[in-house]
Every structure is written in structure tokens, then in C-alpha cells.
């Protein structure tokens, strides 16, 4: 059973980036049902209805005809903006904005309509008192209100995103503190647990008890390793992208190959073309993570290679292990959301994915698994991380 999953296939390019910027979808392609409610529906309905009401006076000149070219151009502009408001109302209801922020956007739109409407009304009355009433006031007001409503919706979106960014920053600080506390406690407790398990294994004669104690010590070591992986994962997320520099790939892969041998790989091959990636020390961490994960999960042979392809440095770590499960590959590459029932088994691949994202790169997983239990001669995994070339 073979499969290939690539982060470049998970999204829809610029369109998805635009929708993520507007809050319609989440940036990492994690789908969430928006919270509904009367307030949210009312906010979305107001935006759409205002667009529909403004559409009538904007489209009328196009239907009736007889307008000069400048009038047609202005009517087309007003019509496009009015239709955009109708569409934005629907998108706002389905967006990932909270109901509070959805209402905030609608209020900004209302503010634009009320303020500009009051100004235009004042201008019309002023000109009427001067004895020179405005020609085609409905035509003029409809265009101004459409422009104002759309402009204030955009202002509302950025205002809502600013509020959400502040909330996320506060949550990130809390998670960071919690993360450090948990990692610290995990390291301490697993060290104690592993030490006592080793003492028990050395001091008992019963083979079953000795095996159980050794299993406890191994599990403690794994848990302690997860604490270190969590630290690396947090570093991959938090570092700024402007810290990148030219990183030669050949010594990086040689170090990863040495780590793979130390982790238990029987054969390790390196094939590197002279190239450099625009990255930092996180790239070495990610490649070493791939190289050492392979023998730790049953691979005996590890092949590391690097090529410059279409402006990216593609670094591939291939092995003959049992292969990564399809569900895990789909989650890591963004094909499926991570849920309680479908989740990655460890943090290693998440570190690699976070590193690729940090450098505006990509991740590809190609794996072959045996149909039954256990690994066969045709099993293996090739994980490729693509980083912009320096």
C-alpha cells in the first residue's frame, strides 16, 4: 500500500491565503464550524441587505441606458461593490471570526453608511438652500455609500483581526508558561522514574519483573524525549523568519548521517549536490529528527540526499522501515484536521512540518506499507522537506 502526501497539495494557493486573511478559513486548513446564533446571523444579514439595497440604484442606470461613459463606469463600480457586500455577508456568517468580531465588522459597515449618508444628506440640503440642487442625488449617494460600506467592512475586518491577534498573543503567553512548566516537571519526574526502574531491574532475579522494570525505564526515556521534542517544536514555531541566512546543506546532511548511525542504522548513504538553503539552525534539527526517527522506528537503511529544484533545496530522508501510516501523513501535510481520534503519533514530524512552514517551504511524505502486520521488503518512507535556496 503506497501513498504520497504533500503540503503543496493541501491548500489552494493565493485564493486560500486571501480567504485566510479575511478570516473565512483558518490559515493551517483546519476546518472549524463557526459559532452561530441570532447576533451572528443579524450581522451577516445586515451586510448582505445593505449591499442588496445599494445594488438597486447602482444597477438601474445600466439597465435604463442613456448614461455617458463616465456614468456607466461609476455604475459598474457601484454595482460590483454592492454585489461584494452581498457576498461578504454570507462569508461573514461562515467565517472563523467569533460572533463578537462578526458583529464588530457589521457595526463598522453601519458606521460607514450612517456617517457618509449624513454627510451626503447635509451636502444635498446645503446645495438646495443655495438654489443649486444636486443633479441625480440618488446616483451620487448610492455610489458614495457603496464605497463607504465596503471600505468600512475592510476596516472592520482588520480591526477584528487586530483584536483576535491580541487574544492569540495572550493565549500564546499562557501556553508558553504552561509548556515550560510541563516540560520541566516531565524531565524531573521521568528522570526519577527511569532511575528507580533501572535500580529495580538490577536488583531483582525474577525475569518478568526485570523485563517490566526495563520497559518502565524505556517508557520514561521516551516521555523525557517528548519533553525535549516539545521544546524544539515550540522553538520552530516562535522564531522569526527574518533570522534566516545561507546554510550549506552538505555538512548538515553529514551530521544527520552520523546521528542516524548512532541511533542504530546499519547502512547510511549521503548524496548531496552543492547547494545552500535560506534557513537557520532549525533546518539541521529537522533533518536530524528525520534521520534518527527512521532507525528508532525499525529502519536499517537510511539514505539522505539534497538537490536544488525550481528554486528550492529539496532534502530527502528515505528509509526501509515499516512506513508512516496514511492517517498520520494526511494530518501532518494538512490534508485532514487533527482530531482526538486521528492524530500524529509523535512530535518528530510536527517539528519538521513547523520548520518547513517557518521558512516558507513545503513537506512531502511518500510511504509504502505492508498490507498486513509488520514490515516487508517493499516498505519504506521518503520524507522530503523543501526550503528556498539561498
Model description:
The protein has 390 residues and is α+β, with helices and mostly antiparallel strands. 61% of the residues lie in helices and 13% in strands. It contains ten helices and eight strands. A six-stranded mixed β-sheet has the order 1-7-8-6-5-3. A hairpin with a 2-residue loop joins strand 5 and strand 6. Helix 2 packs across helix 4. The longest helix has 67 residues. The chain is elongated, with a radius of gyration of 29 Å. About 4% of the residues have low confidence.
Offer a few descriptive terms.
390 residues; alpha+beta; two-stranded antiparallel ribbon; 8 strands; elongated
The total beta strand count reads 8
Average predicted local confidence, pLDDT: 81
Structural class: alpha+beta
End-to-end Cα distance, whole Å, is: 37 Å
Low-confidence stretches: 27-33, 340-344, 372-376
Content of β-strand: 5-15%
Helix content: 55-70%
Main beta sheet: strand number and arrangement?
6 strands, mixed
> Strand order within the widest sheet?
1-7-8-6-5-3
Structure in a nutshell:
The protein is an alpha+beta fold and 390 residues long. Helices cover 61% and strands 13% of the residues.
What layout of secondary structure does this protein have?
Blueprint: E1 2-6, H1 14-21, H2 38-64, H3 69-94, H4 99-129, H5 137-203, H6 207-238, E2 245-248, H7 249-262, E3 267-272, E4 276-279, H8 281-296, E5 301-309, E6 312-319, H9 326-332, H10 348-358, E7 362-368, E8 380-388
Parallel strand pairs: 3-5
Antiparallel strand pairs: 1-7, 2-4, 5-6, 6-8, 7-8
Helix pairs in contact: 2-3, 2-4, 2-5, 3-5, 4-5, 5-6, 6-10, 7-8, 8-10
Amino acid at each position: 500500500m503506497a501513498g504520497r502526501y504533500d503540503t503543496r497539495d493541501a491548500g489552494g494557493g493565493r485564493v486560500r491565503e486571501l480567504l485566510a486573511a479575511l478570516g473565512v478559513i483558518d490559515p493551517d486548513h483546519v476546518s472549524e464550524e463557526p459559532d452561530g446564533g441570532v447576533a451572528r446571523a443579524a450581522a451577516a444579514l445586515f451586510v448582505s441587505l445593505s449591499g442588496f439595497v445599494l445594488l438597486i440604484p447602482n444597477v438601474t442606470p445600466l439597465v435604463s441606458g442613456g448614461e455617458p461613459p463616465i456614468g456607466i463606469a461609476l455604475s459598474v463600480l457601484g454595482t460590483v461593490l454592492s454585489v461584494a457586500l452581498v457576498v461578504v455577508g454570507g462569508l461573514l456568517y461562515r467565517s472563523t471570526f467569533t460572533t463578537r468580531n462578526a458583529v464588530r465588522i457589521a457595526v463598522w459597515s453601519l458606521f460607514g453608511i450612517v456617517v457618509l449618508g449624513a454627510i451626503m444628506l447635509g451636502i444635498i440640503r446645503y446645495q438646495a438652500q443655495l438654489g443649486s440642487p444636486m443633479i441625480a442625488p440618488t446616483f451620487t449617494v448610492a455610489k458614495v455609500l457603496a464605497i463607504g460600506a465596503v471600505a468600512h467592512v475592510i476596516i472592520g475586518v482588520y480591526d477584528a483581526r487586530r483584536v483576535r491577534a491580541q487574544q492569540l498573543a495572550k493565549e500564546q503567553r499562557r501556553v508558553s508558561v504552561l509548556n515550560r512548566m510541563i516540560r520541566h516537571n516531565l524531565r524531573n519526574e521521568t528522570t526519577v522514574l527511569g532511575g528507580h526502574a533501572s535500580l529495580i531491574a538490577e536488583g531483582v532475579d525474577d525475569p518478568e519483573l526485570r523485563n517490566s522494570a526495563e520497559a518502565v525505564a524505556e517508557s520514561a526515556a521516551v516521555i523525557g524525549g517528548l519533553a525535549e521534542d516539545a521544546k524544539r517544536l515550540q522553538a520552530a514555531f516562535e522564531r522569526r523568519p527574518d533570522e534566516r541566512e545561507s546554510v550549506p546543506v552538505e555538512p548538515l546532511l553529514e551530521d544527520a548521517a552520523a546521528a542516524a548511525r548512532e541511533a542504530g542504522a546499519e547502512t547510511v548513504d549521503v548524496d548531496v549536490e552543492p547547494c545552500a538553503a535560506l534557513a537557520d539552525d532549525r533546518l539541521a534539527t529537522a533533518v536530524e529528527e528525520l534521520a534518527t526517527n527512521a532507525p528508532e522506528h525499525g529502519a536499517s537503511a537510511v539514505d539522505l540526499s539534497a538537490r536544488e529544484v525550481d528554486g528550492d533545496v529539496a532534502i530527502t530522508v528515505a528509509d526501509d522501515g515499516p512506513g508512516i501510516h496514511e492517517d498520520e501523513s494526511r494530518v501532518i501535510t494538512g490534508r485532514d484536521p487533527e482530531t482526538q481520534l486521528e492524530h500524529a503519533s509523535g512530535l518528530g514530524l510536527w517539528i519538521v512540518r513547523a520548520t518547513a512552514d517557518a521558512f516558507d517551504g513545503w513537506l512531502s511524505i511518500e510511504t509504502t506499507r505492508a498490507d498486513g502486520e509488520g514490515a516487508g521488503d517493499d516498505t519504506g518512507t521518503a520524507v522530503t522537506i523543501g526550503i528556498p535556496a539561498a
